[in-house]
Design brief:
The chain is 8% helix and 49% strand. The protein has an 8-stranded antiparallel barrel with strand order 1-3-4-5-6-7-8-9. The chain is globular. It has one helix spanning 7-17; strands spanning 34-42, 45-47, 50-56, 59-65, 73-79, 82-91, 94-106, 109-115, 121-128.
């Protein structure tokens, strides 16, 4: 049978034993460097652009690749568990700034909103592609890749 901890000393001991994550703030820093597959949904339709990011400190640079916006370079930043990236594109002869902003859900998952200027807005999710070296350890039981 467990004995209750005595008074204030027991309460202090219990509080000190709680993990710091219980405070609601995750201080784990995620590096967004890598290749990401985005799934974007807007009023105008949906798409699956590929985004390559490189993170240096809180700064993001990279490359966006889609059938609609082509291959623009992008810039952005990371602050805690949030991020934003933007690029300029041309659609039907009009220049617009496209901005993705969202939250880092895990090391390999993002979600948020996309602002397409006068063309509307939408939502997105993104998954990080595994690095090529991870494929070396993916064994096919039939020996065929």
């Amino acid at each position: 049978m467990r004995q209750p901890l005595p008074g204030m000393a027991g309460l202090v001991t219990l509080l000190l034993a709680l993990p710091t994550a219980a405070s609601g703030q995750d201080t784990t820093k995620v590096d967004l460097t890598g290749v990401w597959t985005f799934t974007v949904t807007t009023d105008a339709g949906s798409g699956s652009p590929t985004v390559t990011l490189k993170q240096a400190g809180d700064s993001l640079t990279g490359h966006y690749s889609s059938q609609i916006f082509g291959e623009p370079e992008l810039k952005g930043n990371v602050k805690g568990r949030t991020f934003a990236v933007s690029f300029t594109a041309s659609v039907e002869g009009q220049s617009l700034t496209v901005t993705y902003s969202g939250t880092i859900e895990s090391n390999d998952d993002l979600k948020g909103t996309v602002n397409l200027g006068d063309f509307g807005s939408g939502t997105f999710t993104a998954k990080r592609k595994p690095p090529p070296e991870a494929w070396l350890f993916d064994v096919d039981p039939h020996g065929i890749r």
